[in-house]
């Protein structure tokens, strides 16, 4: 088994080929199950996507399809599904391929941490060879495509391509709202270099905060987002705004919802359907207020506390908080934070303390299993398990996710803040030789790796400056008439 594992992670070709084969098998099996079983493998949302694409093919609006709550870009992408036959599964293949592209970005980002190829492939496989990820994509969920955009966003930002980062951020938020939370961390991480002013005034602090890099990122991301929205509004009018954005403020979806709000949403949906309920009684609904703790955590507290220390881990914590505290939480949403897991694990306490890591994984899986058991009783067998079964299972899963969130935030908070770096927009055109020189400079500056996956290099025997200079008496250097002594480290 060990030799088989070693052979698997010996090259990128073997890992990516295995990931491709896994998704191919699931895709073919899904087509077979759909043809012989009443329980369909294809996700219900995929039928919504393809119906909207067929509406476009008839020169109609994708919003003519009830429950289509997405950007028209998604329906445009899936136009080939309207051609009939096996083309119906084009979207599934596209989303499965997106998994592999996202895995390629993950591998590049993990290697930036200094890991060797084999180690980097092992961590990238947490996404590439994850059966849950492959299952969700091959069932027709579009989250895999969004994950590609998010990883591309992180890659461009980490490599200091700010203009492209702004464009991708605007595209991500147009495609699905939640990536706007990453803008808070990216802006916070773009700190100006420290100045000699010991006690700057309020105006000086504001000028320092509004540095050119932050202004560039904000302007390009907002311009991209606005341009896409204006285009779609010009074509599809008010239904675009209502179904793509405004609907999420008041949505009361309660099916397949892991959130603790699930039972309350069910009761709200029943009240909304009852004409005897007065409008005044629902003037302020809790589903409109559920965003407060969610946004406070994911867009303010977590970015301020950790964005300058470890951006990928911060983005993981933000996403985990956003999904955990969201009023609607389905299994597809788990991919939003699982995509960051390979970037977090190398320096995490979950890996350094195997018992903690195994406990977190076990509880996370068992929490889902408990909820799914109650959901099966409700939706397939018709048993009323809302209280205490389903509600209790939701609270348990919520508690488990909050505990894991605390671990992730704690890991990020313990890291030292990155030194202030002035990011030049000219870096977008830097040559590969400059990147190599920068990498070598970083290795020289940090000779001992923090990551335990890297082999520490001793600096004791390394000469400093001119190796011909005698430094044996450096430990006792007199500094003037007070006979002060500078002790070496």
TrEMBL record:
Pathway where it operates: Glycolipid biosynthesis; glycosylphosphatidylinositol-anchor biosynthesis
One example of a Gene Ontology biological process annotation: GPI anchor biosynthetic process
Pfam family, any one: Mannosyl_trans
Membrane-crossing segments per the record: 12-32, 86-107, 167-190, 215-236, 320-343, 355-374, 386-409
E.C. code: 2.4.1.-
Biased composition (Low complexity): 430-441
A GO term for molecular function: GPI mannosyltransferase activity
CC terms in the record's Gene Ontology section: endoplasmic reticulum membrane; glycosylphosphatidylinositol-mannosyltransferase I complex
Classification via InterPro entries: PIG-M
Keywords assigned by UniProt, alphabetized: Endoplasmic reticulum, Glycosyltransferase, GPI-anchor biosynthesis, Membrane, Transferase, Transmembrane, Transmembrane helix
Region feature Disordered, mapped onto this chain: 419-475
Predominant localisation class: endoplasmic reticulum
Membrane topology: Multi-pass membrane protein
Subcellular location: Endoplasmic reticulum membrane
Protein purpose: Mannosyltransferase involved in glycosylphosphatidylinositol-anchor biosynthesis. Transfers the first alpha-1,4-mannose to GlcN-acyl-PI during GPI precursor assembly. Required for cell wall integrity.
Similarity comment: Belongs to the PIGM family.
Protein's name according to its UniProt entry: GPI mannosyltransferase 1
Taxon lineage: Eukaryota, Fungi, Dikarya, Ascomycota, Pezizomycotina
